[in-house]
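Trying the structure run again after the queue cleared.
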Amino acid sequence: MNRALILIPLFSLLMFACDKPAEPAAKEEATTEAPAADAPAKEETKTEDVKKDDAPESQAAAAEPTSEQGSLILGIGKTPEDIKPGESNVYGANFTIIEPPITLASAIEKADKEGVGPYKVEATIEKVCQAKGCWFTLKGDGIKMPIRVKMKDYKFFVPKNSGDLPVVLEGTFKKTTMTQKEAQHYADDEAAHTGKPAEKITGPVDTWMFMASAVQIDKKKS
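Done. Tokens:
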């Protein structure tokens, strides 16, 4: 009887002793897995560093758009150099209309009936702003009303020596009325650098306004 009483406590102690090691094992497992949790964060930082290193190259590429012929698109944000004989340069952006350009007279007729467009037009440059190349006028057969071209969002300019050169341009086209003040501003610009007094504008002026997004100017070899 006494032996049985002694064996029961011993059996309990043995069971308790078997359960004890499980706790240290759990702690060891947690310690082993901890470094693995840090690994993705380090790898992510490396990826981010690579992206930062690539950024300047991407920005440089975006700053120098090219035409469909592979040459640089000119005049963005600054007055371009004078166009030279034999050059055919694109200013502002690539053309989006793939069809051949229409004449200035046809563009006026279409805009009068169908709205502002956009249109792709061929014409001849008449006068160019001699301050920055930020506007120019067009001329064509049978065209009596002034045709003035401005650059979309004032984002690009054309060479100041573009007068009398053939041009293809794409953009919206509408008939408008300039205030006396606006018309006088253009008249003053036209007279600048000529040494002649500006035309005196006495009232509002009706005109066709072309808002260009892309311009191609050609200058043949002499």
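The longest helix spans residues 22-63. Worth checking whether this holds up in the mutant runs.
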